[in-house]
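Regression report. Comparing outputs from two consecutive submissions.

Submission 1:
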Amino acid sequence: MTTTPSPTSSAALEGHGVERAGHPETRGIDLVPAEERAGRPRQLFAVWAAPNVSYLSFAVGGTLILMGLTLPQAVTVILAGNLLWICTGILAASGPAAGTSGSVISRAFYGVMGNKIVLVLTGWLMAAAYLALNWSAASVAGIALAGRMGLPRGSAVDAAVICLIAGVTLLIAIYGYATIVRLYAALSVLLTVVFIVVTGYVLAEADWSYAPARPLGGTALLASLGIGFTLVASTPLSYSNSPDLARYLPRDSSPFAVAGWTALGAYLPSAGFTAVGALAATSLDMSDPERALESILPGWFVPVFVIAVVVNTMTNNGMTAYSASLSVQSVGVRLARIPSVLTIGVLGTAMTLYAILVFDFLTSVNTMLQLVVVVTGPAMAVAVTDLVVRRNRYNGADLLRQEHGGPFWYHRGVHWPGVVALVTGGLASLTWVTTSFWTGPLARAAGGVDLAIVSGMAVSALVYWAAVRVLRTVPRC
């Protein structure tokens, strides 16, 4: 039940009212008061489904077959890699508990000052890189559609398409939480319908008896399975922003329901459509996913598919830009949330222009997805471990205190167990990662087997748990 805040409520004193769909969100990282919290955990299903009805899933699924995996092997990797959405769901449960953004909650594991340094990497640069990755996917499709409409090909038109897509995406982030919840509920249905139609045509063309010309075995098979797992699992690991979309729920919301609806909403479309991409590659050349899929679609449906790809990317990046703007504030930059959105948007747009006009799209996608897990895997492991150790007991008011001697100041503003766990996990992951331009020494010694995610997350979780137990920096709840 939603209550109407009185004129003397904390929301009124801070200049905030109840956030409404269709109006720019005014709240930044400040605490969401109880009278402005409403909704049920199940609404998170559509919020997470819409951005994961994704064209990139088709591309990643196709890549698994191009790597030499059989269809059963590819599907096994897809189902296993997407299980890491459970981590995203668990992290979402801290949103209602704290009532503030994930970039503030992370002060609990890195300290007030340590968190600022970590957020520059995970909240700014990483967010801008993912904006560029997804905008690149949309831009490839949008540029092709512009060509179908008779517009001349060239860098100027390409840049205009990229900037248009980026501009509309940033509007979603500016309008914020209430608009995202309302809009994504409808878009998740529409996008699913379009992608199911595409799936129907893929199933009709799929070679169910497909076998690679040279089946992999031994170390070569293990290497491909490891790289494939890293590609698939990199997506859920990138969503450390799940508390941001859950913080407006009532504090007494079931953490199991919050975690479950978040994970399920992301898992089902991500796993399903990545598997469709693998099926498509049994009969199509998925080295150019857009052209391959368009070749089996009727002409009238191709523009519908392209528009769906662009819209899906906007939903994905709308969430990313929204959370990145909160990270900017959490670091201490004195910008309101909307200028923060624009700042991150400009950086992401610049990276997109470089990726599209300079690099090959699919190469950019695969390289980035394999490499970012060196940071995102350990960061996710630290966050989930802290939540488990604290039993999800976060106090938003305490987290927002940044003064010397505050509850999350720790030692000179740094919580060393979190920082050391992140660094050691990252180093462990780096030794096991395999990309087109860097192979870690342990991965090289093992014949190219990629264990970046498993090693990085295991080391970070173990180091953090052991350190807080020995140093007693986290109170036992």
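Submission 2:
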Amino acid sequence: MTGRLPSLPLLPPDADGVTGVTEPALGPAGGPPALRADAARNRTRLLEAASGLLAECGAANLTMEALAAAAGVGKGTVFRRFGDRAGLFLALLDHRERQLQAAFLSGPPPLGPGAPADERLHAFGPAVLRHERDHHEVILAARTDPVRPYSVPAVRLRLTHVMMLLRATGAAGDAELIAHTLLGYLDTALVHHLVAGRGMSLDRLETGWHTLVDRLAPPR
């Protein structure tokens, strides 16, 4: 997946071609109102500066003070915009997550609409694995609360999406619990440990994902 994809509008029922299922909308449900154009530009400028600092010095050295200096604004502006360092990392993740969301909500099949649900589920795992591998430093730095990741809008959206695909495949069992099991396999900390700590290749992890999907949601 390359290039920057636009944010998506709310999708109508059955937009993905799966009868009787509504694809979740992009972004946090019930989130804050849209920013004014100038505020949105300022937020984007801060996030771009934060991305530059992240690439240059890593997550450990990305502080609110460093961001304020890089963006040429007061430290108070940064704190008002993001709340704290964890809020900054979550905003960065949201900024990057939208490309992944766009791919599985409206991109080409088999990840996006137009392919059978089981094929979309198989494609979902490798896409998320590579996303988690590429952004693990920011994701792990944002985890200041062990419970908070489960309530992040992007995670809730992934859960809803996987539940939708499981139900469309006719998989037996509790779709929500099975979806949590599948997403647990894609957890950033686990992926980083297996790749960096155990020296496993992404190809091996992807093969494991396909095996897990075949067992929990076998093709019809």
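Expected: both submissions complete independently.
Actual: both completed, but the second showed a warning that disappeared on reload.
Relevant detail on submission 2: Confidence is low (pLDDT under 50) at residues 1-32.
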